[in-house]
Amino acid sequence: MNGLTLAYIGDSYYELKIRTHLISLKLTHVNDLHKRAIKYTSGQAQATIMNYLIDHMLITQEEIDVFKRGRNASGPGRKNIDAKNYHLATGFEALIGYLYIHQTARADEIIDIAITYIEKGDFNGKNSSKESTIQ
């Protein structure tokens, strides 16, 4: 399966897991749910999560290879995110999609790490590095 197809699946699965997580927090107003979900699902958030996973060696070489396949397949980006972060986010989604298909428990583990990371406030850059070591 190509990287963009994996990203398509990964985006859906990640979004579902985030929405389920937010509902488990007893949030019920759709507007509040949407605003909170963006903190986890925006391209910028996903790029930052991916940098964290790589920089802290929380993913395997096989997972890095899948990430690269998704990252390298993505297009020029979107208007609300720069191309570099768009590519990182697409790679993250591809990784989640691949793991959802082949190792759902591992996909859930990565998503749990992402949730914890965002909730600690690291998304804002307090404890995360600016640049990833993956080229």
What does it look like?
The chain has a single domain (3-124), classed as Ribonuclease III domain (Ribonuclease iii, N-terminal Endonuclease Domain, Chain A, Orthogonal Bundle), CATH 1.10.1520. It has helices spanning 3-24, 30-41, 43-55, 61-73, 83-102, 104-119. Helix content is 71%, strand content 0%. The chain is globular, with a radius of gyration of 14 Å. Helix 1 (3-24) packs across helix 2. Mean pLDDT is 88; it is low at 125-133.
Question: In a few lines, what is going on in this structure?
Answer:
The chain is mostly helical.
CATH superfamily: Ribonuclease III domain
Class based on secondary structure composition and strand pairing: mainly alpha
CATH class: Mainly Alpha
Q: Helix and strand succession?
A: HHHHHH
Topology:
Blueprint: H1 3-24, H2 30-41, H3 43-55, H4 61-73, H5 83-102, H6 104-119
Helix pairs in contact: 1-2, 1-4, 1-5, 2-3, 3-5, 3-6, 4-5, 5-6
